[in-house]
Amino acid sequence: MNAILNTIFAKHRQQPGALLPILHDIQHELGYVPEEAVPLIARELNLSRAEVHGVITFYQHFRQTPPGKHLVRVCCAEACQANGSEALAAHAAKRLQGEDETLEPVYCLGLCSMGPAIQIDETELHARVTPQKFDALMHKLGEKA
Amino acid sequence: MSITLYVPGDAGALALGADEVAAAIAKHAAKLKLDITLVRNGSRGLFWLEPLVEVVTAQGRVAYGPVTEADVPTLFAADFLHGGKHPLRLGDIAALPYLARQHRVTMRRVGVVDPRSLDDYLAHGGGKGLTLARSLPPADIVNLVTDSGLRGRGGAAFPTGIKWQTVLDQSAKQKYIVCNADEGDSGTVADRMLLEGDPFCVLEGMAIAALAVGASKGYIYVRSEYPHACIALNAALAAAGDWLGDFEIEVRMGAGAYVCGEETAMLESIEGKRGIVRNKPPLPAIAGLFGQPTVINNVITIASVPDILAQGAAFYCDLGVGSSRGTLPFQLAGNIKFGGLVEVPFGSTLRELLYDYGGGSRTGRPLRAVQVGGPLGAYLPESQFDTVLDYEAFAAIGAALGHGGIVAFDDTVDMAKQARYAMQFCAIESCGKCTPCRIGSTRGIEVIDRIRAGDQTQIPLLRSLCDTMTHGSMCAMGGMTPYPVLSALNHFVEDFSVVKAPLPQAGEGLG
Ligand SMILES: Cc1cc2nc3c(=O)[nH]c(=O)nc-3n(C[C@H](O)[C@H](O)[C@H](O)COP(=O)(O)O)c2cc1C
Ligand code: SF4
Ligand code: FES
């Protein structure tokens, strides 16, 4: 971990207000921001541990524990509600119960006229997701993993 | 000679399988030894037709859509590379009434150009504004923007020229331009479409702003839910080379906090802190990012500037009604048949957008309510669909245009539930700085739950709670959450008087 952090720190050393970019890079490399990284980030940026911790917990995007095999986000905002996202969310929670996937709500993915929308592993998007389509996508994910 | 094809790389098109379509086309062409060039353009914004494939033929661009991977072999069989007949053939997309009736100004290149190519941008009228700005004194640039009547498209509709003038008037060594690309409102996709489909326009607008106020550094703060927009911007920055002169732009990614769309919370976030709203004064224009004078503008505001310079203030100001000048890219979302982006001058009506463009609900049921302006916007009943789309007409009915998002609901919607969600969203996203917002929103959920359980005596309490939030909150998060709540209560009171089972939270059970 230390080597990874040092590379990331070096990349951002000249950047004013580097905390968020550093946290993004760490999460990108490790999948989450480990507790052990906090004192190191604090020392690098001359902040207190409490300040770094405060920032990590303020933003929904940053995780302090490793995610599951895949990260599935279901949009729960109004435009997707209008297209049945609640039923999809309930279905998703049931379908992924006991599985090693992380399921999270997200508030808008910018696909508001083609809801319900979901995002898999940060960049893969799917629109007009019915429960059937959701199951097919999860099945494909299972094969990939 | 190589045949050019456009297959959108827009996130909306990707969500409907555009990458798979592009791959299938490339594979098929290779098999047939056909020489093709695939351009990944933005979206034209007719989302029911995505993925929309366009082929450049001797007769111009011919569109096909919505194309799935499975359609690709039949398209080749129909000789679509030369505009051949096919059930999905749409012809010239720009001639479709949905597009032909619009008046695209700010969004006119989106879906048309190659977003990775500066040359293509320049060939489609880009760059002229910046060239002109380089020849003008800063005050003249500001005057042009003031004269155009442009007001901020992020929600508050503050006159852009006045904001720029304030920053110009400060004497400081370092000033900043911040482009607000947080687009957190449900129902809004215009910023995303523009960032992905015409990123150079945003860069040009920022560079002009920098010349106008004397700034040397800019930031674009993009929400983390928009990774494709970040990629498009960084690619455009790399391709821009020295086109931007000494003006330096950095793309910053948000981290899933709606409140960071509020300008001062955004500044805190760029500085590496929690996204807590700052006290005003001082205005960001006087003491903003790192304490320096800062212009903060929405993506669409900034992207409107190059044309205002290139075509003149009058060109822009001649469009629109009252004190709402120019155009607004409206976004038709939610339960709507023909969802998409509709850029028109201010002055048409909600009804025109919902029915003439939108074609009514996707489910075929009657539209019962539409929420305009995101999660802090009011819900309007059918009786208000004739409201003219301009800032003042909306303010007059206790509503707001915001960023132009229009979310339609059919008659199965439960408006007490939507009111509850508005409170819930506020409770989740509140920055926590002031009590009416932080505590009031949670109380609001409880009060609505009691009303739904049959206790009508709680309705006055809900109103007084909304009153406290409206008047006691520091920013529009707590201050405008009463818009959706009270509009639901005022126009759909019947939904508050039926006893219903307790509601689960939206997103409950998800992580
Ligand atoms: C809670 C909250 C969220 C906001 N979110 C956004 C946003 O996502 N995008 C945006 O441009 N403005 C947003 N705003 C408005 C900004 O504070 C600010 O008015 C705007 O960026 C100014 O740019 P403009 O004058 O070009 O509109 C938000 C305001 C509040 C109170
Ligand atoms: S109204 Fe809410 S979001 Fe705005 S400053 Fe107060 S607590 Fe923060
Ligand atoms: S509301 Fe779900 S994508 Fe915008």
Account of the protein in words:
- The complex is a heterodimer of chains A (145) and B (511).
- With 145 residues, chain A is α+β, with helices and mostly antiparallel strands.
- Chain A has two domains: 57 residues, no CATH class; 75 residues, Glutaredoxin, CATH 3.40.30.
- Chain A contains seven helices and four strands; from the N terminus they run H-H-H-H-E-H-H-E-E-E-H.
- In chain A, strands 2-1-3-4 form a four-stranded mixed sheet, with helices on one face.
- In chain A, strand 3 and strand 4 form a beta hairpin.
- In chain A, helix 1 runs antiparallel to helix 2 and helix 3 crosses helix 4.
- The longest helix of chain A is centred in the C-terminal third of the chain and has 14 residues.
- The two termini of chain A are 24 Å apart.
- In chain A, 42% of the residues are buried.
- The mean pLDDT of chain A is 96.
- Chain B has 511 residues and is of the alpha/beta class.
- Chain B has four domains: 98 residues, Glutaredoxin; 200 residues, NADH-ubiquinone oxidoreductase 51kDa subunit (Rossmann fold, 3-Layer(aba) Sandwich), CATH 3.40.50; 91 residues, Ubiquitin-like (UB roll), CATH 3.10.20; 83 residues, NADH-ubiquinone oxidoreductase 51kDa subunit, iron-sulphur binding domain (de novo design (two linked rop proteins), Up-down Bundle), CATH 1.20.1440.230.
- Chain B has a five-stranded mixed sheet, covered by helices on one side. A five-stranded mixed sheet of chain B has the order 13-12-16-14-15.
- In chain B, helix 7 packs antiparallel against helix 8.
- Chain B is globular, with a radius of gyration of 23 Å.
- The chains are: A alpha+beta (145), B alpha/beta (511).
- The structure holds flavin mononucleotide, iron/sulfur cluster (SF4) and FE2/S2 (inorganic) cluster.
- The site of FE2/S2 (inorganic) cluster has 11 residues of chain A, from helix 5.
